[in-house]
Design brief:
By secondary structure, the chain is an alpha+beta fold. It has 2 domains: 40 residues; 49 residues. It is elongated and about 75 Å long. It starts with a helix and ends with a strand. The model has no long low-confidence stretch (mean pLDDT 85). InterPro entries: SecD/SecF_CS. This is Protein translocase subunit SecF. It comes from Demequina litorisediminis.
Length: 97
């Protein structure tokens, strides 16, 4: 057992959690309301799994920059707006769809 556990178990020290339940209910209600405001106000950012599309990860790229990757995607399909992320020092992730 930890040193504080024996004093808590024997009743030498107590924490007035139940006596302050109204305070903790208020804190909980504030957190739930703030979460709901953010959820319905900002909404969820749906990932590729829910929106559909394709993801390509290209490894060992000499110059990992977004420009050439955007050009290649635009050559294939100009209606797509790709999301390009540089991963590490020499990898690129392209998400389209």
């Amino acid at each position: 057992m930890l040193p504080g556990e024996t004093r808590l178990h024997s009743g030498e020290i107590t924490y007035p959690i139940v006596q302050q339940r109204k305070r903790w209910f208020l804190v909980s209600i504030i957190l739930v309301v703030a979460s709901l405001v953010l959820l319905f106000g900002k909404g969820l950012t749906l990932g590729l799994d829910f929106t559909g599309g394709s993801q390509y990860i290209i490894t060992n790229v000499a110059n990992p920059s977004a420009g050439p990757a955007e050009d290649v995607v635009n050559e294939i399909d100009s209606t797509q707006e790709p999301r390009i992320t540089v991963l590490g020092e020499d990898d690129i992730r392209i998400q389209a769809g």
